[in-house]
Amino acid sequence: xxxxxxxxxxxxxxxxxxxxxxxxxxxxxxxxxxxxxxxxxxxxxxxxxxxxxxxxxxxxxxxxxxxxxxxxxxxxxxxxxxxxxxxxxxxxxxxxxxxxxxxxxxxxxxxxxxxxxxxxxxxxxxxxxxxxxxxxxxxxxxxxxxxxxxxxxxxxxxxxxxxxxxxxxxxxxxxxxxxxx
Length: 181
Hints:
Elements: E1 4-5, H1 16-28, E2 32-36, H2 43-53, E3 58-64, E4 71-77, H3 84-91, E5 97-98, H4 101-108, E6 128-133, E7 141-144, E8 151-156, H5 157-167, E9 172-175
Parallel strand pairs: 4-6, 6-9
Antiparallel strand pairs: 1-2, 2-8, 3-4, 3-5, 7-8
């Protein structure tokens, strides 16, 4: 795995949603580095990728309330344990659970294993609320997938949670999760 600057020069075999991610970032003038790799489905595989990226390892969880009327994208450090009760209290939404793959695709144009903050560029109706654990904001870099889990990006945290999120027309809610029982 080797860190590359910017978009791939050869886009053969890459999905449209991945190319749209590069187009989006390039249009904003956001600098980013990229690593191409085998599909990453677990945090263990992501840890190896993130060592090369040198970025905050994020778990991206796509959640919903019981009625499936409110959807959330939660970004937490990869080494933190997610406790629904702790988050539910902070956002005023009881009975959180993982949203379905169908809803993930409908709102973010992302499939399981590829959940990423970049999927919010596909949420034109602002159906998904972005929740970011405060510890994610402490690092210089944040890592994410370009809407597919065969590549990973490294973007400056200040760019991601500044101009990138703003261009997606989303706000973020900062939460404080301890990961403790």
